[in-house]
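Milestone M4 deliverable, item 7.
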Amino acid sequence: MDWRTLAARADERIAPHVRRTPLLESAWLSEATGATALLKLESLQHTGSFKLRGALNKVLSLTPEERARPIVTASTGNHGAAVAYALARVGLTGTVYVPHDAEPSKVARIERLGARVVAHGRDSAEAESYARALAAREGHVFISPYNDPDVVAGQGTAGLEIVRAVDRVDAIVVAVGGGGLISGVAGVIKATWPDAVVIGAAPRASAVMLESVRAGRILELESEPTLSDGTAGGVEADAITFPWCRDLVDEWDAVGEDEIAAAMRRVILDDHLVVEGSAAVAVASAERTGRRFAGGCVVALVCGGNVGPGTISRVLDG
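Output delivered:
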């Protein structure tokens, strides 16, 4: 698959609607690893996460017939906000199914962007399964958070921005839920620097893709509560991202809740950036794994910054 071409086409399509996010050095993370540690700040994207890239690429690729039908999706928050934003850009709206424990601030953001929100299920996998079945039954258009080639190509544009910004990356760390972000980004990175090490990081409390790749098949696993709500939940049985995660990701790293909280504190206090738990998963993993790349360049993809004030207070209180 020609990942760079797919990402370049997506980039051309979504360019008028997205922010080209900064790639900035983190002084404390560089000191901790001995590498030049860069943060790709998708937390500064419109809607506050990388999800806008894939959602826009999908929505802008819909046919006139598809745009005339009801549009639904499922999300823990960030993808839903991205779809709502993308639909609004073309004069449409839709319905977003969220799990009952979705972060209230993320749900409120979806509603502010004009979409209808319906709560269903205990986690993203249950909400997604329900929404997909409803769409198939009623003839609606379902926009997957990750299980769609247009969505994955859109996420790959973040990788394209990285390769355009620096001469070399020795390692990149990406938080993994359904695998859409790491699939698209890893495809672009590997096409540019085949020897670059791609590290998939997941919260230990909900590491379904990580465990599935290790098992050689997609598993049905229970997820525990985690600060990384953006990556929590199961993976669809037919996920197109599974073989890409298996083939493109070099290493996997499970991150504990204390590590996630500590990374959030460091980024908030030392980098002066608001990040959510899923972004901190990548930063925490980069702090540990990045030491092997001392003298080189390590990128942590800061995938989102949508976090409620209550969570920030708890994290800062330690």
